[in-house]
Design brief:
The chain is built from 12 helices and 10 strands. By secondary structure, the protein is α/β, with parallel strands linked by helices. The strands form 2 sheets. An 8-stranded parallel β-sheet has the order 3-4-5-6-7-8-9-10, with helices on one face. It has a two-stranded antiparallel ribbon with strand order 1-2. The longest helix has 16 residues. It starts with a strand and ends in a 10-residue tail after the last helix.
Length: 321
């Protein structure tokens, strides 16, 4: 496993991290706690030291905390998220931060998360949505400073609104944030336009989510793909979207001259080819996925020619809407 600096924080994180939404047994159907625990332990065995969870991920915080406590001898960094008080995702312009992240709500959510995980602190506390309208307003920044001083959190981050990296640019430039979590993949390359350069300039860590487009960039989504009842991917890949994805992935495979089952590897290498990226957090619900993804931390970025090919496959759309 290779490690990168998380911005100016002084913390080193494994370039392959662990996205723990899928193990929460809520929006993703099929996870079992026994297999999730095995996957988490295998990830730590293989050098993963950054796990991302959230208050809104069902049982995820509890399961992550269980494993981290059992692996007390391993330095594992855990990031969680505070949901907006008004439960509005994503955060539109015009909202008052008193509606979304008032200090008392931040603190109460953190205490609930600490209790669920059985931990005495989180390494990164992130707002689960963000809008630059909130800079200089409300008491969120004062509360974050207090929580750092109390030792309940080490760093402050935000999860950037889906496919809207522009909504956190001012925050990055303000110096008030330690890390941002953002969607960045072969289809949505927009963070590379402004956000990633700004993070490099201002020493802000970058945590990349949805590097595999919720499974779209694995090659396993085809026109006939279906998901279990209650799985959020039924909405994400609704109507003719699986067929659209299948066609787009086939074009990438053809242009790169790779085998169809190599698309996920190349998608993750695309993300890691950016020096601004600190860690990428694919969801890994099985030991098999852990072993396949962590094996990519081998210091072999894509070539300039491969990156030039992938630059032509930008596909701006929002399947969350």
């Amino acid at each position: 496993m290779r490690y990168r600096e998380l911005g100016r924080s002084g913390l080193s994180v494994s370039e392959i991290g662990y996205g723990a939404w899928g193990i929460g047994e809520s929006s993703w159907v099929g996870a079992t706690e026994d297999e999730s625990v095995r996957a988490l332990n295998r990830a730590i065995d293989l050098g993963v030291n950054f796990i991302d969870t959230a208050r809104g991920y069902g049982e995820s915080e509890r399961i992550v905390g269980r494993v981290v406590r059992e692996r007390a001898g391993d330095e594992v960094l855990v990031a969680t998220k505070v949901p907006p008080k008004n439960r509005v995702w994503p955060a539109p312009a015009g909202l008052d931060p008193a509606e979304t992240f008032p200090g008392e709500h931040i603190r109460a959510s953190l205490e609930t998360s600490l209790g669920a995980a059985g931990l005495d602190h989180f390494d990164v506390l992130q707002f689960h949505v963000w809008n630059d309208d909130w800079i200089g307003r409300g008491d969120w920044l004062e509360t974050i400073a207090e929580l750092k001083q109390e030792g309940k959190i080490r760093l402050f981050g935000v999860s950037v609104n889906d496919h809207r990296p522009d909504t956190a640019l001012a925050l990055v430039r303000s110096g008030a944030v330690d890390s941002v979590q953002v969607i960045y993949n072969v289809f949505d390359q927009s963070p590379a336009d402004e956000l990633l350069p700004a993070c490099e300039e201002h020493g802000v860590g970058v945590v990349v989510r949805v590097a595999l487009d919720e499974g779209g960039l694995t090659g396993r989504i085809t026109a006939g793909t279906t998901f279990p009842e209650g799985d959020f991917r039924n909405r994400y890949f609704r109507d003719d979207r699986p067929a659209q994805v299948e066609q787009r992935v086939a074009a990438i495979v053809a242009d790169l001259g790779i085998a169809a089952d190599e698309i996920a590897e190349n998608a993750l290498r695309f993300v890691l080819s950016s020096p601004a990226v600190s860690t990428v957090i694919p969801g890994m619900r099985t030991v098999r996925n852990v072993e396949r993804n962590t094996a990519l931390s081998d210091g072999r970025p894509l070539t300039a020619d491969q990156l030039a090919v992938l630059a032509k496959h930008r596909w701006q759309r929002n399947y969350y809407s």
